Amino acid sequence: MFNIIFYNLAHSNQIERIIDGRKLSITELINANLQNGSLPVRVRKLMTSLKVNNIDPLGIERSSRWENLMSAIVYCLCGQLPLRQEVLRGRQIMMALPRNLKVSPIVEEIAFSLLPYILIGFKIHIDDRFQSDSNKIVDAVSFIVRLCNNPNPTAHSFLCAHRGKSISEKHILTDSVQIKKAQVALNMIKGILANDPWAENRSVNWYQQGPTEWACLNMFPEMFLQYLTSGRISHLLNLLEKHFIELSEVLNILDPNQIETRLVGLDPITIKVISFLSEKYGTLWRFKNFSDTMMQKDQLVSIALDITLPEVIRQMPFYSSPHSGQKYINKKSFYIAQNIERSSNLNLSHVNLIKSTIEKFFQIQIMHPTAKAVYETAFYYLWGKSAALNQKELSIGIDRDHNLFQYVAWKQGFNDEIVDNVHVPLMYSRRTAESHEGSALKDYCLRQFWR
């Protein structure tokens, strides 16, 4: 009989009758879901016709039984039904596992306890090319292998600013983090860690920007300008503090399986990246044109120029056309005075924070576009490097974007420490367009949980 540790991954409340962190048999899990009166006819028919016993964990013999059971487990956990090709990716992952993981009882635990959370959490594709918002099968296998060599896994994820929408469709921060969606994203990671058969101690670190002078580095310049030009930087800082508190409350909830969860400020990571670049390229790196033909280019700079720079220019026109921002720079003193005057909190420390936040924004904006690309590349490069140096680290992307430069930079940092490592144990969770809603797994979204 297969067992699984349950964490609710449904965005609705349909399976709240099972407590998060409870260990139960697959049969018990399915029976609990069958009690749902609104269960779709197709799903009910699937569950009532299942044969749970004597299923080949690799899905080679009687493969349809394996596929039906996997589909049922996935639905029981998240309320979304996978397409057959998504289930096939699970069988392909199992077949690609190294030989030492294909032995009983480990192979059963991987197949029917761990794998369902991986299939729910991450879209998987079969070829070896990078695809945005999807992960290679070989990287999924590498992720599982990293788990088996790691008795004390700590999952690391970075978050962007929590974006909302104004009536005019301009970027602003949301009033509140969507707590239910944040809990589901956290449960996905907990489900992986709790069903990791090799783990002894488990933890999760999420990194979030707090209300500090570095606030502008984790949002589009256009978003920051919405608050700057309207005299609402104090409000922006208050929202960042509110978001941090809201997420902290989610991560401070005690877990029944003793999984430690922490929300950590991003400032130490930001300072680490800046210090790294200052040491590597000199203290004036922000003003350098890294595309200068006279400048020697290492791998990090090559990635920044060839892959990252187009993304920086596309997403941040402020950087690609520095003269367009000059009108704001000329009014810096005015903006500082305006934002202090319009703040409801005139405490000296808060006033100084408003001033330093605006000052930092303008320091960042005069950065050369190629330097900004190098900074963005270095962030993911150092994340990969850290994962290579610390075997216990698991890298799980839940931030909004998943671009080629992030993958290549992370892989370069990882491979600089682990030579000739072909595959990348970095997994980015599912993301769909905002308009996608439905009961299929392909419509399921976990990243950044503002949708």
Mean of all residue-level pLDDT scores: 90
Uncertain runs with pLDDT below 50, 5 residues or more? Answer: none
Largest sheet composition: 5 strands, parallel
Percent helix: 40-55%
Backbone structural class: alpha/beta
Order of helices and strands: EEHHHHHEEHEEEHEHHEHHHHHHHEHE
Counting DSSP H or I runs of 4 or more residues, the number of helices is 17
Based on CA inertia axes, which overall geometry fits? globular
Q: How is this structure best described in words?
A:
The chain is α/β, with parallel strands linked by helices. The chain has two domains: 1-121, no CATH class; 131-449, no CATH class. The chain contains 17 helices and eleven strands. The strands form four sheets. It has a five-stranded parallel beta sheet with strand order 9-8-5-10-11, with helices on both faces. Helix 7 (179-194) runs parallel beside helix 9 and helix 14 (332-341) runs antiparallel to helix 15 (348-365). The longest helix has 21 residues, at 369-389. It is globular, with a radius of gyration of 23 Å. The protein starts with a strand and ends in a 23-residue tail after the last strand.
